[in-house]
Amino acid sequence: MTETELILHLLSKGDALSSREIFEKIQYEKSSRTLARLLDKLVAKNLVDRVGVNKGTKYSLSKSYDILHSIDVEEYFAKDIDEREIISSFNHDLLKRDLYQVELFTDSERLKLEDLQRIYLRNVSELTPEEYSKEIERLAIDLSWKSS
């Protein structure tokens, strides 16, 4: 397991932990400052929440973790079926509740999407209604074909 995976696995057990507790429980071999930088990156990616300040700071998995964390499909299917963590039902709360409480995009990603939206609106405004309709029809056909 990577350092990041060790931290996320530890935090998945549900307890909010201080950086010192994380350091000790994963038997981190680098400095505590390196661990702090790694935790900062996880917080920036919205995978981990940080609560408190200074020595009272605790870390836990964020609500967005289930939505944002990556899954290595090859690794999952390489395991024997009895070793796989299998979720038996769909997490409906993920869509009903959690998705509305999660920041899916970073500030820079949001700005990029807003720029793309402005470009799109400018380009669409130059089309006649007939041209726009044909473009939407072509898009629908492409999406349908590629999803089949």
Summary of the model, kept short:
Helix content is 55%, strand content 5%. It has 148 residues and is mainly α. The radius of gyration is 21 Å and the shape is extended.
What is the general shape?
Answer: extended
Spatial sequence of strands, sheet with the most strands: 1-2
Poorly predicted runs of 5 or more residues: none
Output the radius of gyration.
Answer: 21 Å
H/E element string? HHHEEHHHHH
Mean pLDDT: 87
| Total beta-strand segments | 2
Structural class: mainly alpha
- Report helical residue fraction: 55-70%
Portion in beta strands: 5-15%
Descriptive key words:
two-stranded antiparallel sheet; 148 residues
Kindly describe this structure.
The chain is mainly α. It contains 8 helices and 2 strands, in the order αααββααααα. The protein has helices at 3-11, 19-25, 32-44, 65-68, 73-78, 92-96, 107-125, 129-147; strands at 48-51, 58-61. A two-stranded antiparallel ribbon has the order 1-2. Strand 1 (48-51) and strand 2 (58-61) form a beta hairpin. The protein is extended and about 65 Å long.
